[in-house]
Amino acid sequence: MPTGNELVRALSAGGRDLDPYPLYAELHKLGEVLALTAPELPYSAAVFGYRAVDRFMRDSSFEVHDACWMEAMTPTWHEHAVLVTLMNSMMFSNGDRHGRMRGLFRKVFTPRRVQAMEPEVVRIADELLDRMADLGAGGAEVDYMAEFAYLLPARVVGRLLGLPDSDISWFRSQVDLINDWLDFRRKGPEVLAVADEAATRITGYYVDLIAKRRADPQDDLISDLVQAVDSGRHQLTDLELVGNLLVLFNASFSTTIHLFGNSLPLLLASPEIRAAPELMPAYVEEVLRYDTPAHVFARVASADTEFLGVPLERGQLVAVLTGAANRDPRRFDDPDRFDPHRADNQPVSFGAGPHYCLGAALARTEARLALPMVLDRFPHLALAGQPVRTDQLILRGYECLPVTVAGGSPR
Questions:
Q1: Sign of the CA dihedral 55, 56, 61, 65?
Q2: How would you write the chain as a 3-class SS string?
Q3: In the chain, where are the structural domains located?
Q4: What are the phi and psi torsion angles at 258 (to 5°)?
Q5: Burial zone of 277 (CB within 10 Å; 0-12 exposed, 13-18 middle, 19+ buried)
Q6: Out of 100, 124, 298, 310, which residue is the most buried by the measure of CB atoms under 10 Å away?
């Protein structure tokens, strides 16, 4: 039987063809959490059992990698624009600083606001499906990822924030460069340098936009955030706004792309969903469990401690394998089977505890509304070739998903 070191090493080294799920199944045979001793791995432990992951992410003994930890581990971090930008966000903050930032965003990014976006989600989906019908006329192949899965969440979050549609393609390309560096298999000086350049460009873009909204407020999230800060009720600097706007774009966009992509092959293999679109919320939850977009989170021990019998020293890193947790046989019967009728299906795809994904509700709303529209518009929708996976693991999905839509009905 392979050791935990060997399995995590394989996950770290795997490329676009890696199927992580057999490795996760082997990990589950070893328990729920394991100490790691391989010197080439940055992690001192891996947590992968469902209940262990849920408990771990709610445990205040373990923190995200914030500016204080960065100072101790990477003293030159101030020289890198991407690190400065990320350290100014709630995603890389702990304690009171995290609460201060998240409190503002929760005040303006409310469930009511997500609900108010529903008509816009439907309008954008209609526009994109019209374009897919034109591109796929006569049986021509269409890349579902490029023409729908990428564009829908990008335009939705763009309109939520107040970004012009014409800027979305550029903005997405910059975020992708940062995501390349965030992936735990893609670290390196070249990737970091490119991410620095992208963060510099994004920072300049947002600083200009914040200034415009301060002078001329609009009906968008950035205007509301600026007004809340300027009122004195919330204390955030403009650079903290920039860092958190980047994180919000990521939280509402990057994961949702792969939720749409990972959903499609599974839905095409489930013909009953066409006859019962009311089942879509359950299907979405099972996609999030069975082929989750988010596979890896990282935490750092804030003091000498232990977790489920594994000792950890202050400052040691822990890999949290949510992709494995969602296939834990201790929690889910027959976990490698896609079954949208599971009772009590609660995947940990969006994390847990104080850092639970801020964009989770919007992602679920988009999938719940738009996926039935895809199936309804294109009753003969089919895969047209071999899907191509991305070469990331932290966000696992498809780079290309060719389909045919011949026979699509008018809107």
A1: negative
A2: CCCHHHHHHHHHHCCCCCCHHHHHHHHHCCCCEEECCCCCCCEEEEECCHHHHHHHHCCCCEECCCHHHHHHHCCCHHHCHHHHHHHCCHHHCCHHHHHHHHHHHHHHCCHHHHHHCHHHHHHHHHHHHHHHHHHCHHHCCEEHHHHHHCHHHHHHHHHHHCCCHHHHHHHHHHHHHHHHHHCCCCCCHHHHHHHHHHHHHHHHHHHHHHHHHHHCCCCCHHHHHHHHHHCCCCCCCHHHHHHHHHHHHHHHHHHHHHHHHHHHHHHHCCCHHHHCHHHHHHHHHHHHHHCCCECEEEEEECCCEEECCEEECCCCEEEEEHHHHCCCCCCCCCCCCCCCCCCCCCCCCCCCHHHCCCCHHHHHHHHHHHHHHHHHHCCCCEECCCCEECCCCCECCEEECEEECCCCCCC
A3: 4-404
A4: -80, -20
A5: middle
A6: 124
Placement of tokens 């009728």 in the chain: 341
Q: Helices 165-182 & 238-268, crossing angle to 10 degrees?
A: 90
Domain 4-404: CATH superfamily is: Cytochrome P450 (1.10.630.10)
- Six-digit token string for 243: 């860092």
353 Rama sector, left if φ>0, alpha if ψ -120 to 50, beta otherwise: left
| pLDDT confidence band for 51 (50 / 70 / 90) | very high
**Total number of residues shown for the chain:** 411
d(Cα 275, Cα 329) in Å, to the nearest integer? 31
Model confidence, pTM: 0.91
Q: Which residue has the tokens 């060997």?
A: 6
Question: Tell me: the pLDDT tens digits for 248-307?
Answer: 887 777 789 999 999 999 999 988 887 787 889 999 999 999 999 989 999 999 999 999
Asked if 45 and 318 count as a contact pair (C-beta separation under 8 A), the reply is: yes
Give Cβ neighbours of residue 281 (< 8 Å, ≥ 6 apart). Answer: 364, 368
